[in-house]
Hints:
Elements: H1 2-29, H2 37-41, H3 44-58, H4 63-88, H5 109-117, E1 129-130, E2 133-134, H6 135-155
Antiparallel strand pairs: 1-2
Helix pairs in contact: 1-3, 1-6, 3-4, 4-6
Amino acid sequence: MAENSKNLLIKLIFLISIIALASALFIEYKLGHQPCNLCILERIPYLLAIILILLNYKFNHLEKLFLILLTIVFFFASILSLYHLGIEQGFIQESMVCDLKSRSNLLSKDDILKQLQEKSISCKDVTFKIFGLSLTTYNILISLLITIYTTKIYLDYDKN
């Protein structure tokens, strides 16, 4: 029974990761909502999860290691998302991560005009909401749930 729940959880994380990445790309490219730098960074754990789960199926004798790696990935995803939410809500000041433009010296007026015409998205600006909540909020919930369940499966791993 526990083996089935572990396999179901891994498949569910894989599916959630694919849906999360596909949704982010759909919202960005089809709906035209530009992500901030932190939004882009919040996609990385889902990509890592997909890679880890695919590697887990190839090297299933290392399943316990992959479980702890998934736990760590989504723990840090939770922290990153909480940080982003703090910026969105105004509790935390934007950092250099949120700085959209590189600090390089502009040499020509054409470069200056080009940068002025580009749409810049701040990490504190929420450009897309579902049921009144930002995608960062959903990311926190998903990341925390995955962290909790992978931790539980990892801790119960040897009991089965």
